[in-house]
Amino acid sequence: MADRIVFGSDHAGLALRAEAVRVAREAGFEVEDLGPFAPASVDYPDYAARVGQAVAGGRARLGVLVCGTGIGMSIAANKVKGVRAAHCTTEYEARMTRAHNDANVLCLGERVVGLGLGAAIVAAFLSQPFEGGRHQRRVDQITALDR
Q1: Domain boundaries 4-144, CATH class
Q2: Per-residue confidence band for 14, with pLDDT thresholds at 50, 70 and 90
Q3: Any catalytic annotation for residue 100?
Q4: Residue 106 near residue 121, CB atoms below 8 Å
Q5: Which of 11, 67, 87, 88 is catalytic?
Q6: For residue 2, is pLDDT > 80?
Q7: From CA 49, how far away is CA 3, in angstroms rounded?
Q8: DSSP state, 112?
């Protein structure tokens, strides 16, 4: 069975979310898209919570969130216990946050990175495994902050 990735955005992240879904499907991931599916204004914390709860609850291994800047989504998603959301603007950041921090939610800003770079960041995030080893101790320390 393919790994499950859950996606969400607000109204400012519709196009990049659709591109991210495409990238994940082409990479062989099972996709769950939580919307929204219309351009009307929505509240990003609602979608950050939905994606964060799906990941923290084990319904999906990873999540991707998109808003205008990625910042609001990152702040909101990190409020969900068990989520390690990373706001990334480069492929390098996306690889390193998976490799060293075992980040489980990627947050992107459509107005910041655009579609091409955004798709490359998603691909980098989804393809990079956690390295474990010396990094596991630090991830355990982050997890302890949830208590």
Answers
A1: alpha beta
A2: very high
A3: yes
A4: yes
A5: 67
A6: no
A7: 20
A8: H
CB 60 within 8 A of CB 54: yes
CB of 111 closer than 8 Å to CB of 132 = no
Domain ranges within the chain, ordered by starting residue: 4-144
Residue in the block written with tokens 């474990």 = 132
Confidence band, pLDDT 50/70/90 cuts, at residue 147: confident
Q: Please state whether the peptide bond connecting residue 129 to the residue before it is cis, i.e. omega within 30 degrees of 0.
A: no
* Candidate list 88, 100, 107, 135, residue with the active-site label: 100
d(CA 56, CA 135): 20
Question: Which residues in 19-48 are b (16+ Cβ under 10 Å) and which e?
Answer: bbbebbeeeebebbbbebeeeeebebbebb
pLDDT of residue 137: 94
User: What is the rounded CA–CA span in Å between residue 67 and residue 2?
Assistant: 26
107 included as an active-site residue: no
Residue 22's contacts (CB-CB under 8 Å, 6 or more residues apart) are 119
Decide: helix, strand or coil at residue 106.
strand
